[in-house]
Amino acid sequence: MNGTQITVVGNIVDDVVVKPTQNGDSRVAFRVGSTERYQDRETKQWVDGKKLFIGVVCWREQADNVAASLQKGDPVIVVGKLASHQYVRGEENRINFEITAQSVGPDLSRGSATFTKRRRMSGSSMPADADGLPAMYEDESYVAEGDPIGGELVGAGHASAQAG
């Protein structure tokens, strides 16, 4: 499907709101604010420039992950499809812009995060642990050999960010 691809870097400016659809699909909506920064040539001070506030919508599993991971004030990077919605309020024509997110994540240039990958074991005959991971991942020596940076392999998915 064609569409206008956009990437926005900014902060979540509203609460992350969960709004399930009538058929039970998860839907999350929030707004991102992004402010241009530039250095004034005369004063050599950094100043705020133009501001952008734009709505973001996430669906299904991504919506669940965003709701569990991000909150108002978090620095984020959003990639998705840009769309406009025209409407009339009173007698005035208005337009609203919104991103349907393909990817959402914490902006790691402004803090650190811990990521937990969501793993699925559908249709597999491999034995799984209580978190649905292959049982062989429980052996720490396997994790250390299988993960070149020595991290952990864990179950349910979410990321938490700490701005710095």
TrEMBL record:
Gene Ontology MF term list: DNA binding
PROSITE patterns named in the record: SSB
Keywords noted in UniProt: DNA-binding
Pfam families named in the record: SSB
CDD domains for the chain: SSB_OBF
Ligase found in the keyword field: no
Keyword DNA-binding among record annotations: yes
Top-rank taxon, per record: Bacteria
Protein's UniProt name: Single-stranded DNA-binding protein
Native organism: Jatrophihabitans telluris
